[in-house]
TrEMBL record:
Domain annotation Thiamine pyrophosphate enzyme TPP-binding: ranges: 423-538
Statement: the UniProt record of this protein carries the keyword Zinc: no
Annotated ranges, domain Thiamine pyrophosphate enzyme central: 193-324
Lineage: Bacteria, Bacillati, Actinomycetota, Actinomycetes, Kitasatosporales
Protein name as it appears in the record: Thiamine pyrophosphate TPP-binding domain-containing protein
Amino acid sequence: MNDRTYPSAWHAVADHLHHLGAGAVFGLPGDDMDLLGALEGTDTRFVLCRDQRNALFMATGYALASGRPGICAVGKGPALTNTLTGVLEAASAAAPVVLIAGGTALDRMGTGAFQELDQLAAVRPYVKWAARVDHADRLAGVLEKAVTIAVNGTPGPVYVEIAEQAAGEPVTRVGPWRSADPQRQTPDPDVLRTTADAIAAARRPLLLVGGGARHRNTDRLLEAFAERLGAAIFTTASGRGTIAEDHPLFCGVSGLYTVAPADRLWRETDLVIALGSRLEETATFGWPDAAGLPVIQVVTGEESLVTGRPGTGVLGDVARTVEAWSRLLDGHAGDTAWTERVHAVREAHAARAAERAAAADAAADAAGPAAGVPVARVLSALAGAVPETRVLVQENGLQDMWSYFYPHWSCGALGGSVVPSEQTPLGFGAAAAVGVALAEPERPVVAVVGDGAFNLFRSELPTVADAGAAVLYVVLDNGGYGWLQTNLDRVSGTGSRFAFTADRPTGSEGLARAYGLGYWRVDNPGDLHGVLHTAWQHCADDNTAGVVEVRVSLADSPPGTSGAGGDFPLREDE
């Protein structure tokens, strides 16, 4: 039967973490150190963070990179409320994160106990499922249900609270732990046939690959499907790293990050096949009129279906859906004229990007070192300095948004990507990079972040050092919150008495060096290539993080844009 009795609830949690294969747990325990005590004799790593929000970000990065549950453990009361921004991000990113927290003892609820809070009420709006364990005999079942809910359907965060009176009680587990592997659904056969017929009838199909396709493109299944259809391939921002971006049908990132000439394909397509995308606003920004563009949307959870445009929703696993379509469409050949059109647009897109990068370089060279380093040049140098198996972890500010615009940055065939969700909380990428590095220790991890986001994250530099996370942080320094400053300039002009940016020392060098991390500063474009090669070599050889601060210009807007215009960039006429 494999029954087992544990001396305490936290010992049962520790064994369950081992069963899950949790390579790392992220968090900041409360005054009760029993979980750490239970982990002492195990090989489970606990990354002790300085801030609970960052712990959730790290667990989310771990989950997105690995495809396994990310685990976060914290104390009670304000420790729990500090995690809520991170929980919101995990929900928006569809990341399977398990948050475990302590809770006030049942007999002290309502007495004004220390750090007493109705934690279930606080966290429920942000999670798929939440449960409180008041009796130790319920713990094993709650842990198993939490993981099952986190990884199945549309993945997302779950919450388990262990009340103080139950934490020290013995726990008996009956039978072995259940499997934590997700169950992959095959869509309804009638829906598969109907949608396969619609795909076969399309003359100009376009494949949109979203974050729900992560870890589902075994043996380049999705590229082969696109080749069968002759379809253009785009990804959402969260879907990057799923598709080989050197494939001749790949044309970039959709929505907000699609610029001329790739945007023409969206005006010309007659069917979008969206795989694992919830079709959020950034992914559909700039799309043609909803009434004229049918979409077949494949998602695992019905709550993710978008019904405001013509088309069909398919409930099922991306890989199983595409495999079934491929069988139904055996012998189908796409329209060669459309395929040639896609190839031509891809080539023109690459040429236009080279023109933009050259123009940015020429402007920077003419202005001299005082103008800072062009972001396009930073990305080019970074691609040359770090091996092509690298994972790029991103923020979403004014200058770091350059890396969302293909081909100024490409994941190639071997690279990966982790980005913030539609919520884009400041500092997510900087912290998530730690989780990514621990989830995939064999791959180079680079975080491109703005100085505003990095300054918010800097309290975790000792965590980065202690965890041995060899992340290369490339910090684009525009003097503060460049996105907000650009929006302010648009409203008030450049003479406002308010300011979000200023030319001042960042203070990062002292902190980085104090914790044994590498540090470099680039103000002159001519120094960029050498510094990035040196910095990456430091990360690879010493297995520790490095920080490279690069001075950039506030006016260096991403391609096809002219600065911030509220929530989104202003588009240039091209």
